[in-house]
Amino acid sequence: MTHMLALVLGENGYTVLNSTFFDTLTVKSDIPRPSLGSGAAKAMVYLSPTEEGVITLSLNETTTLEKLEEIASLLCGKNVKLVNLLEVTN
Known about the structure:
Elements: H1 2-11, E1 14-16, E2 24-29, H2 37-43, E3 46-51, E4 54-58, H3 65-76, H4 83-89
Antiparallel strand pairs: 1-2, 2-4, 3-4
């Protein structure tokens, strides 16, 4: 799941900062992004803005495809569907 999120965010203007990851992803965006506060709470995901434009997020074994789409949509500022990406990565 984390790999799929990294791919989608990379395609939408984010740079993935950690070269290896299991459940935690650190990304940076040079593009101004909307505030994540209430959306992150709604998505029930741990987002930690560590510095300007850098976000660390953690997924766990309960993260569903639907939840991943919600997180990706929140971060990308648009509706993201991962079904096609899931077919490519399997």
